[in-house]
Amino acid sequence: MGQQQLLLILLGIIIVGAAIAVGILLYSSQSVESNRDSLVGDINNISVAAWGYYMRAQILGGGGGSFLGFVPVQALMSNDDGTITPVIAADGKSVEFHAISKYGYGTITTTIDVTGNLTPFVFTGDFAQ
Q: How far apart are CA 123 and CA 109, in angstroms?
């Protein structure tokens, strides 16, 4: 083979290798974003349930102005995305949510208060990028 043909083969191998590397990088970043978005959605669903519990009268099975006694649906707390742990404040005026990715991408933390608002999400690990 001529020298020009060998150079073209080498160039082709380099281009294919670069394309494969870029594809893997795009797939992995999409996986992280998808997992993060799913966990944020799960936290939002649990926080809506917590707020409903807080607003519901005690006689109707709610907290009557307190988060104390709130128990979220188990299916929302642990699924294919990760595990979410609610931590109710001792005074019953807030619930802090800790989400841990099933794939080891990182954690998400937020808090719902008596106004029903979530604090800004705090992302760690690969989620923070």
A: 7
Residue spans per domain, the chain: 3-128
Collapsing DSSP states into helix, strand and coil, what is residue 123? strand
How confident is the model over 24-63, as pLDDT tens digits?
Answer: 777 767 888 899 999 999 999 999 999 999 999 999 998 9
DSSP summary character for residue 59: G
- The model's pTM is 0.78
